[in-house]
Amino acid sequence: MGLDMGIHKRLIKGTSKVAMSMEEFKEWVLRDLDADQDGKISKDELAEAVRRRGEWFAGLKAWKGMRSADSNRNGVVDDIEITNLAEFAQKHFGIMIIS
């Protein structure tokens, strides 16, 4: 399942960005990225999301994503770090978080 699965919500006119609220982003992350359904996103789960978007260097991009999102360095992005992951997704997944 790719980024567009279940979030065809609002395309920003004149761009390829998808707009969603932070709550919609959290739902998307847990539904489409959290493969083992443990409520946390691992580097491998993030790499798979990058791969599904057809991008190259998925492992490297996932590593960068984890470095920017995993603020306590425990190896996963959990609920309290979801805002960090949203910032990464806005830069690399074509998502715009709206209020």
TrEMBL record:
Signal peptide: none annotated. Coiled coil: none annotated. Residues 21-56 form the EF-hand domain. Keywords: Calcium. The keyword Calcium applies. The keyword S-adenosyl-L-methionine does not apply. It comes from the Eukaryota. InterPro entries: EF-hand-dom_pair (IPR011992), EF_Hand_1_Ca_BS (IPR018247), EF_hand_dom (IPR002048). It holds the Pfam family EF-hand_5. This is EF-hand domain-containing protein. The lineage of its organism: Eukaryota, Viridiplantae, Streptophyta, Embryophyta, Tracheophyta.
